Every structure is written in structure tokens, then in C-alpha cells.
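Ticket #4471: structure export looks truncated?
Reporter: QA, pipeline team
Priority: medium

Steps to reproduce: submit the single chain below to the structure queue and open the exported record.
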Amino acid sequence: MTWILIEGRAYWILFTSAFIGTAIWESLRPKRMLSGSLERRWGSHAIVMIAGTLAGVAVYRISPVLMASTVAGSRFGLLNRPWLPFVARCVLTLLVLDLVKYALHRACHSVHLLWRVHQVHHSDPDFDVSTAVRHHPGEIIFMQGAYLAAIAVLAPPAGAVLAAELASCLQGFVMHANASLPTWVEKSLRWIYITPDMHRIHHSAEVAEQFKNLGDILPCWDRLFRTYLAQPAAGQDGFVIGLKGVQADRVLSPAFMLTSPFRSLPGEMPTASLPIAEEV
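Actual output as written to the record:
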């Protein structure tokens, strides 16, 4: 019960603070003009987020931190070995869970059924802080289930899982920010952190670019697995965001977002090779 209270309070306090802080940053240093109404975007994306949250709770009834606490004594756990220093277990937890999210995201672009639900996230014709919560309930169920399974196998420290959850929550809003950083800051941060400009490339309407910059927090996985792309072919100010053929006003309708996995959309299954990464 203690972990439930700690996780719930910490997560939603950070969630609210990160959203508001990123929204303020966007208003002060906007990267692009949005094509649609901000109020409509936020309202529609909030409805989809609530639907996804309720679906995840209804299906699993357990959080990542509670799962870690439950399996802490497992004799099969990979990260609860007493001979492994606690600090090392925490660091490994952060690294491995971030790698798990990279792998799951890559799967969403490679498996037809997963792409059907993940395309809801990519069909957003704009890119701002609210895009971070634009995920179909079906995707939430898949991602959360796989993530919980990974935690069950690893049996990592619950505190480290909480840290990973909070870091991912903050990063989700920051990397979707419609905001700009000074060029020198942007280039420097990319070696240790996924910046908005880096992740924005992933939301390009060009299929090959959608297979790039798949990381959640750390950019090392994209560089290691050669899915890193420094700049889109058309440049940061010239490339189109969204899905080709799905740029109509309807994409901001909650009904469209919730039913689009069951529709036939243009270019519904991207196929692209993963060419050699381009360095900064």
C-alpha cells in the first residue's frame, strides 16, 4: 500500500508539473505554428489519454512499481541478486528498462497489428506537449503488459522502477515539446538525452524517418542499433509532420483516434530499411 501511495502521488504531481512547465516553454520559444486549435488538441488528447489510462487499470490492476515490489523476493529475478551492489542494480534497472521501451517502440513500427494502434500517435498533424498523451488504449495495453512482464523477469528495486517511471513521464512531455533550444545546447544534449528536435524527426510523414530516433530517454540505443538520424531530409523547418494522406481535420476527433486502428488508412503499414545512422 505504501508503494501505491508514493507512486501515485509522485507520478501525478510530476505529470501535472511537467505538462504545465513544458506548455510554458512552448509558449515562450515555439518551434512551429500549430495548424489546429490548441484548446481542441488538448481536449481531444485528454479524452484519449483518460480512455487509455482506464483501459490499462482495468486490464492489469497493478502498476510497474507495485509489480517490482511484489516480485522483489523472486528467486528467478535477474536484478535482485544479493551479490550485486544496490547502486549497480539501480543503474542497470534504468538502462535495461529504457532499452525495453526502445525495443517495444521499434516493434510498434515493425509489426502490422502494433502499427495499427501506434499510428494513432503518428497521425497527429502537429507536434506539441499534448502529443505525448495521444496513444490508443490498445497500445497502452500492449506496452504496459510487456513492460510489466519485463519487470517481473528482472525483479529490479522498486525505488529504481519509480525513478524510471518518473524520468519517462518527464521525458514524454519534454521530447514532444513544440519548443526550440539554442543550437549548441541541442547538439550537446543529444549525446545524453533525447531532445525535441531529435524526436520530432521521428514524427515525420516520410516513412523512412519514422523508423529513426525511437528511444524513450537515452539516445544511446538509437546510436548503438543504427536508428539515429541527426536531421530530416527536408530540414527541421521544412518537413511535414503526421501521416501521408491523413492530414484532414478529423484526426483531432477522439472518435477518429479511437476507431482508426479499425479503419483503412493510407500507408497503414510502413516498410523501410534502416540505413546507416547519420552523425551530428
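Status: closed, not a bug. The export was complete when the record was re-opened. Leaving a note from the reviewer for reference: The CA atoms of residues 11 and 166 lie 6 Å apart.
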